[in-house]
Amino acid sequence: MIELLKQNITAHISLSDTETEAFYNLFQYKTIKKKSFLLREGEVCKFEGFVVKGLFRVYHIDQNGFEQVLYFAIENWWITDIDSFTNERSSQLFIEALEDSEVLLISKKDKEFAYENLPKIEKLFRVMTQKTHVALQRRMIDNLSKTAELRYIEFVEKYPQLIQRLSNIQIAAYLGITNVFLSNIRRKIAYKK
């Protein structure tokens, strides 16, 4: 587990083995069974999580009862409700394991401890936050300017490792379309080939 976390950190900043070990020791290891929740709407998110194994979906249920998937998280990705975690307010999100999963969780208190005692960690989270903002901005622009078909094609190209692990319903919820509409898109693409 520490090796996967170390690889993730190294992609953003350089830490000594001692710093990596000290940071790793601030995390709590947790296993989550398939269809179990790491967070439910209305709870306060008390963690940022690093996915060691498995697959999660982070989603919201709108006023009409439709699921809106913000993102999926697989191995080597981070998960949280950043609004709830940062502002200590009730979450509007669900974080559900779609497979039996393993995560490393860090609390706000331990993250603040890392900021004070391992200064490079603050840079790590700043860099990751900037990358997250870029990804969210691109996703918003894509949702506003691209067709559902193009968004689906780009999803398949960008996340080929997810396609086999997700149902059509989950992919449709991520794309903001119905499962029927996604099936039509897939048929249309298959017909073109």
Overview of the structural elements:
The structure is a single chain. With 193 residues, the protein is α+β, with helices and mostly antiparallel strands. The chain has a domain at 2-116: Jelly Rolls (Sandwich), CATH 2.60.120.10. It is built from nine helices and eight strands. The strands form two sheets. It has a four-stranded antiparallel β-sheet. Strands 2-7-4-5 form a four-stranded antiparallel β-sheet. A hairpin with a 5-residue loop joins strand 4 and strand 5 (67-74). The longest helix has 27 residues, at 119-145. The relative contact order is 0.15. This is Crp/Fnr family transcriptional regulator. InterPro entries: cNMP-bd_dom, cNMP-bd_dom_sf, RmlC-like_jellyroll. Pfam families: cNMP_binding (PF00027).
